[in-house]
Amino acid sequence: MLDILLLGATGYTGRLITRYLATHPQRGTFTFGIAARSEQKFETLRDELGDALLHVPTFVVDVANFDDIERAVQQARVVINAVGPYWRWGTSVVRACVRHGRHYVDLTGEAPWVRQVISEFDYVAAKAGSVIVPCAGLDSVPSDLLVYVASKTLKSFAGPQTAIDTSTSAWKLSSSGISGGTFSSILSILEDIPRHKAREATHDFALSPIKGVPSPRPRTFYALSVDPPLRGVLYLMSVVNRQVVQRSWGLFELAGRSPELVFPPGSFGPQDVSGLSYGPAFKYDEFMVLPSMLHAVFVVFFLATVALAMATFPPARWLARKLMPQSGEGPNDLDLETGSVHITNITTSAPAANGRTVTVRTTFKGKGDPGYLLSSVMISEAALALVQDKNLLPPFAKRGGVLTPMTAFGDVLIQRLNACGRISIESDVVPVEGGRMKVL
User: Fold this and answer.
1) Which residue, of 2, 93, 376, 409, has the greatest Cβ tally within 10 A?
2) What digits encode the pLDDT tens for the residues 360-371?
3) Can you tell me the distance from the alpha carbon of 294 to that of 299, in angstroms, rounded to the nearest whole number?
C-alpha cells in the first residue's frame, strides 16, 4: 500500500504538489502515487520531472466515477485531493476515504462545502478513524496556525489558564495571479451553490460544534496598531479563514469543557486537551494590508464592481471565462518564485485579576507564490505528518473526524513548515514599557 495518493496530479496545483513530493528531502522514507483522468496527461509530468517519477505509480481516475475513486483510494493511507471545484467533485472522494478508513487533505476554500462535509461525514469519519482535513493550503493553514501559536505563547508566558480576548491577522500578499482551477471554484460558488447555503456558511461559527462570542463585524477599512502601523481592507478569504479558526476554537473548547463528548471514554484524560482552549471570549478577525489609503479605496471599488458584475450579470461571467486562465493554466515558475506572504498576528489576552493583559506578536513569512507554491508545500507537509508523525499528532487526529489544520496536526505541522526552507513562523510577547504592554 502507498503512503500518499495525489488526485488531480496533472492540474496546475497538482503538478506543484507532485514536484514537491518527488523532490522532498525525505523522499526515501515514503511512497506516493499520482492520479489523473487519462494516461496521456502524465506525459507532461514525466517530461518535467524525469527520473524523479520513475518509481511513482500512476492511476487513471475519473472523479465523476465513484468506482474509479474507490479503487484508487484503497491504494493509499492518505489522499491529497487537488481536484476542484470541491462542491462538484469533492464529496465522493471524502465518502470513499471515510468508507475505507483513509485519511484526506485538500485545498478547498469553499466554506459551504466544508459545512456540508462536516454534517455528513464528521461522525462516521470518527467511527472509522479517518482524519478529514479540508482547507489545508493558504486557505486556511496560516490563519489557523497563527492563533494556535499565539495561544501557546500566551500560555507559556502568563500561565496555562490564560485565555485570548482578541486575535487579528494582517495579511501582506505578493502573488502573480490565479490559476484556471481557482477561477473555476469562484464560478462554482456563484453558479452551483444554493444561495441560502452560501449565506449560512458566512455566519459566525457556521463550522464550529459550539457557538462563541461573535467576531467583529466585517468592515471596509482596517488598521492594526503595530510598529509600523498596518492598514488595509477586507480580505476576501477571511470568510472561510475565520470559519476554520472558529472550528478549531470550538473543538478545543468543547474538548476542554466536556472531553467525553469529543473522545471515546478512557481514550484521553483531561490533561491531554485542557491546555488547548483559546478561552470563552475568543474573537478573531483579519484583513489584507495595502500601502496607502488611496490604494485601499481603489481596491475596494474595483473588487466591489467585479463582484457585483460576476454575481448579477451572466455575460460578465461569460467574458471572464474567455479572458481568465483555463483549466491547468497558471503563473509560470519565475512568477511563482517572486511571490511572498507576510502575515502579522496580534493576539491579546483576556484581562487577568489585576486588570493586566498580555499581547503577543506572531508572524508567518513565506517565500514563493502564496496561493500555489506555498499551498503545495503546506498540503504536502500535512499529508506527510499523517504518514510519518501519526504518533506525535494531537488527540483529535487519533480520534478522527472532520478536523482543521491545527486540531489535526498542531505542533507537528508547525515544525515541518519551519523546516521546509520557504516558511518561517515566530512568536514573541510584546515588551512591557512603564507597566503596560507596548504595541506601537
Assistant:
1) 409
2) 999 999 999 999
3) 9
